[in-house]
Each structure stands twice: as structure tokens, then as C-alpha cells.
Amino acid sequence: MSQNSNSGPSPVYEDYTRCIHCGLCLNACPTYRLWNLEADSPRGRIQQMFRVFQSEASDLAQPEGRISEGFVDHIDKCLDCRACETACPSGVAYGRLVEHARAHIERTYERSWIAHVARNFFFRDFLSASHFIEDAARVFRLYQRSGMQAVARGIGVLKLFGLAERDRLLPQIDSEFFFNRFGSTFPPVGPRRARVAFFAGCIANVTFSGLNEATIRVLTANGCEVLVPKEQSCCGALSAHAGFRDAARDFARKNLEAFRLDDVDAIVTNAAGCGSTMKEYDHLFSEHEPEHAQARAFAAKTRDVTEFLEDLGLTAKLNRLRHRVTYQDSCHLLHGQKIREAPRKLLRAIPDLDFVELPYSEICCGSAGTYNVTQTETSLQLLVEKMRHAQSTAAQTIVTANPGCILQLQAGVALHHTNQNVLHVVELLDRAISGT
Ligand code: SF4
Ligand code: SF4
Predict the structure, then answer these.
(1) What separation in Å is there between the alpha carbon of 302 and the centre of ligand 2?
(2) Which end of the chain, N or C, is less packed with Cβ atoms under 10 Å?
(3) How far is CA 291 from CA 246, 252, 288, 299, 336, in A?
(4) Please, what is the Cα angle at 239 between 235 and 240, to 5 degrees?
């Protein structure tokens, strides 16, 4: 990896040439499966990124000739789901390549003025300040609860402006925000078996407070003391995936300060997308930077909540749940963190739960961070297939392990009228523990 002070280590020649063009990743790639186009396959994208890398490295290259609109389009359409990494026999670190390609695009390609301003505000300022997130949440909550949303849907104004689908993707804003829990400590039920720091996310604090509360209940019921560090910040995943690596590095620095590693056995998250980035915090810093060693230690302590609970072993009594469920793998849990069995084992531990595998559960649902907002049409195309498979299982509930996937699947249930519930694994465990 070469060095870049703004974005950390960048890929080198060998990182691209590790691809031997075998094509084993093609069928795993959601966009290739949709369009059958080499340019929208992992192999095709690696080739394009390699050409840009070579052009960059060449003294003869003209700056204006480096990035074409076509290149930006093919890279924008990638979900960064990393299914190609799981399929690749040659060990291509595709996620790193595409994130650096996006950082390069961000530095050298001129998007429209409005896109430039909006992206900069969202990926740098909005995610970094809880007051922006809370203010926006209050506005959306007013829209949802004052009847404005129902009226807008009823009179068809959203359809008129092409916003009907995006409106379906809008999360339900919580009555009470989880930000209020920052700085709290929750005692274990019974003897303490572990002490953990809970990473609460960013937007999840106004849209998934219930999930965060359920996660804490499940952890404490299983003997964990849970701290919620006050100064924690967004993990930086959305910014890193969009090419704002300097912003992602700032988020990482804040979390390196906020979490006192000596004080806890693990840093636990219920968001697979966040966990995946936090487990790779050291990739954001070069070895000579002072943060690198600290980032490695932070990454080594980070655990997805399903991974952590499965390792710890459940001690809380689980009541019977006579219910049929299926499980959608979250890409950043399965492909980013290589965790497949932990959530399934936890589900199978619930007495009477009828667990049935979801066909093609390893293929992305189309959520992919902000993909369902920036590439709504493609995201909804992927969702059609996902809901067809979910219906084929006859499951009453679709379970998954990432808030973004929950939102996407909830939108799928509403748009395709499948009448299913969508829950996180820990929410189902919470119900089994409480017996409700
Ligand atoms: S990250 Fe996902 S969408 Fe992108 S090339 Fe790989 S498999 Fe395809
Ligand atoms: S599977 Fe790996 S080596 Fe083969 S084409 Fe895909 S990225 Fe290249």
C-alpha cells in the first residue's frame, strides 16, 4: 500500500493484479446478475480501476483524461457488498479497491454543484453532529405524525415528484432518541460475566432506539455490564464507502478517544455495516501514523453482537416462540466480517422457533448503506427478487443483522404486500427472553 496523508494507505500494483480474471465472482455479484454486463461485474470493475491506477502512476497521463463518466457510473453502481471477495479464490481485497476508487473520484471528478454540496454536507457535517441528526429527525417525525405523510401519499404528490419509493424507505422516527442513553451504564442481571462498551451508531439513535434498547436488554440478561460511551461518534462507514476517507478517519479518531479499551472486554455493535468498518479501522491509517496501533487494538476488540453472544454463550432462559422465521445475511456481516453461523445458531437456540433458510440469502437486498437512496431503481430491482424468495419460505418474520437491511426489507414488505415482520436477531432473542 502506498501512502496518502488525506486518505491513508492506497492500493498498489499487486492489489490489482491479484485478480486472475477467472470469473468465479461473476455469479455472486448482484449487478452482474441483473445486467449481465462485464463492466458492471467485479472483474470488469477491477480492470477499470486498474487502468485509472496506471494512468495515475504514468507521468504522461493528462489529468482531465483520467476519469470518465462511464467509470464513475460503473463504480457508483457497485453496492460495495463484497460478495465478490467471498467468491474470489485469489484473495482480491475488492472492498479496499472500490473505496479508494471512490476516494479518487471524489478528489478528481466534478459532480453537479448540488450533488457536491449535498454529499459534502451529509458525509462530513451531518453524520458528525448529533444535533443535525436530531433536528432532521424532529422534522421527519412531524411529517410522519402530523398526517402530512398520509396526505402526501393519498393525493399522489409523492408519485408526481418520483418520491413514492423513497418515501417508503424513510425510517419511522422514534419517540425518544437513544442519544439520551449516552454516558449510561447498565448493570448485568446476576453475576457479571463480561463488561462491554456498546457502539450505538449515528442515525440509528433516532430510528432504531428500540433495537438498541433490546440489544442492551439481551446483553445484560446474559450477564454483561454495558457501558454506552458518551463521546462516541458515527463509525465512518458511510463516508468511507462514498469516498470521503478523510472524514472517515476523523470519525475513527473520535471513537479511538471515546472508547477506553483497557476498561472493557469488547466493543459490541448491532450494525454489521458499522462493525465491518470498525474491524478495519487500521486500514484507514498508515503504519507510520500514531493512530495505527490504537486502531488495530480497537479493531481487535470489536464484535458483532451475534458473534459476541455466540462466543459468550446464552445463559438467559429462552421461552418458546412458535413462529416461522427466515434469515437474510447482511453483506457486511457475511462478506465483510465472514460471520455466517453465529446468527443462525442463536436463532436455532430459541425453543420451537421454526427456522427456514432463505434462498440466495447471501445476495444483497439492495440496501447497501446509502445505495437505496442514490441508486433507488437498482436497489428496488434487487428487492423484488429478495421479497420473492422471502415469500417462498412462508416465514412470518424475516430476521437480519443490520439496521439498513431492516429498513430495506420493511420497505419490501410494504411495497410487495407480503405481510411479514422484519426484525434483528437480538430483537427476536429479546422476545424469547421476555416471553412476549
Ligand atoms: S462489491 Fe458487490 S456489487 Fe460490487 S462488484 Fe463486488 S459483488 Fe458486485
Ligand atoms: S474471482 Fe477474484 S480473481 Fe477471479 S475474476 Fe473475480 S476478482 Fe478476479
Answers:
(1) 29
(2) C
(3) 14, 9, 9, 12, 22
(4) 85
Is ligand 2 within 6 A of the CB of residue 43?
A: yes
Q: How confident is the model at residue 282 (pLDDT cuts 50, 70, 90)?
A: very high
Q: Is the pLDDT of residue 139 over 90?
A: no
Atom of ligand 2 nearest to the CA of 41: 6
Q: Rounded CA gap, 264 and 336, in Å?
A: 24
Report helix, strand or coil for 322: coil
> Which residue lies with its CA nearest to atom 6 of ligand 2?
25
Tell the burial category of 261 from Cβ atoms under 10 Å away from its Cβ (0-12, 13-18, 19+): middle
Of residues 239 and 66, more confidence is placed in 239
pLDDT at 343: 98
Is the CB of 90 within 6 Å of ligand 2? Answer: yes
How far, in Å, from the CA of 92 to the mean position of ligand 2? 7
Assess whether pLDDT exceeds 70 at residue 161: no
Q: Cβ of 44: how many Cβ atoms within 10 Å?
A: 18
Distance 420 CA to ligand 2 centre (A): 37
- Identify the helix (H) or strand (E) that includes residue 101: helix 94-108
In DSSP terms, which residues pair with 10 in a beta bridge?
Answer: 2
For 382-428, write each residue's pLDDT tens digit.
999 999 999 999 999 999 999 999 999 999 999 999 999 999 999 99
Give the CA count within 13 Å in the CB-facing half-sphere of 312.
25
Atom 2, ligand 1: which residue's CA is nearest?
Answer: 81
Q: Is 333 in the pocket of ligand 2 (CB under 6 A)?
A: no
CA distance 18 to 299: 25
CB 292 within 8 A of CB 285: yes
Residue nearest to atom 2 of ligand 2 (CA): 88
Q: Average pLDDT, stretch 301-327?
A: 97
Q: Which amino acid is at 130?
A: S
Cβ of 409 closer than 6 Å to ligand 2, yes or no, is no
Cα–Cα distance for residue pair 174/178, rounded to 1 Å? 9
Closest residue CA from atom 1 of ligand 2: 88
Ligand 2 and 27: CB distance under 6 A: no
Q: 0.90 cut: is pTM over it? A: yes
C-alpha span between 45 and 64 (Å, rounded): 20
Q: Compute the distance from residue 39 Cα to the ligand 1 centre, in Å.
A: 11
Low-confidence winner among 106-110, 226-230, 253-257 (lowest mean pLDDT): 106-110
In the reported structure, the alpha carbon of residue 349 is separated from the centroid of ligand 1 by a whole-number distance in angstroms of 33
Under DSSP, the state recorded for 10 is B
